């Protein structure tokens, strides 16, 4: 196999890695509404002077 053929094979093999760099897959599980509400409630409660 010549050097040109080796480079072509290597480029094809690694092209997916280069084109998808930084790609983050979407998750199907989102933050639950009650968890978000509890977090907001606690954070606001801590900022209210007594």
What does this structure look like?
The protein has 50 residues and is mainly α. It is 64% helix and 0% strand. It has two helices and no strands. The termini are far apart.
Write the layout of secondary structure elements.
Elements lengths: L2 H17 L13 H15 L3
Helix/strand order, N-terminal first = HH
Number of strands: 0
pLDDT average, as an integer?
Answer: 81
The helix-and-strand class reads mainly alpha
Terminal CA distance reads 78 Å
Helical residue percent band? 55-70%
- Largest sheet composition: none
Share of residues in strands: under 5%
Shape: rod-shaped
Any low-confidence stretches, pLDDT <50, length ≥5? none
Discrete helix count: 2
Radius of gyration: 25 Å
List the keywords.
50 residues, mainly alpha, rod-shaped, ER_stress-assoc
Give a brief rundown of this model.
Residues 1-25 are annotated as: Disordered. The chain has 50 residues and is mainly alpha-helical. It has 2 helices and no strands.
